[in-house]
Design a protein that fits this description.
Belongs to the Gfa family. GO terms for molecular function: carbon-sulfur lyase activity; metal ion binding. Pfam families: GFA. By secondary structure, the chain is mostly beta strands. The protein contains one helix and ten strands, in the order βββαβββββββ.
């Protein structure tokens, strides 16, 4: 299925394809503050509708994940990283997807605080 997502002001917009049945809630210092629920897909399944120059990137700790955010509204719609198998992945914040009820998804917990 194809989903459309964006930050609050629309400065970052994208489409993502895949089967969305679950999301991950992480308790690391940034995810806990953002309240993000992440859905992981291969990066090629996420297509930006707006220029990459319109986003900003934040990294911390080991600097493995590029947390993308809008400099205007501050919303973090997705992140990017390479998984342990060497695949380029996107972590889409399902709260930024149109027509998706996060309460209807199976939520798994990840202890990112201990990672």
């Amino acid at each position: 299925m194809k989903y459309h997502g964006s930050c609050h002001c629309g400065g970052i917009a994208f489409d993502v394809e895949g089967e969305l049945t679950q999301a991950m809630a992480c308790n690391c210092s940034i995810c806990a503050r953002k309240g993000a629920l992440m859905w992981f897909v291969p990066r090629e399944q996420l297509q930006l509708s707006t220029p990459e120059e319109q986003m900003r990137t934040y990294t911390f700790h080991r600097h493995l994940i590029q947390h993308r955010f809008c400099p205007t509204c501050g919303i973090h719609p997705f992140g990017e990283a390479i998984d342990p198998q060497g695949r380029h992945m996107a972590a889409v914040n399902v709260r930024c997807l149109e027509g998706v009820d996060p309460e209807a998804l199976r939520i798994t917990r990840y202890d990112g605080r201990s990672a």
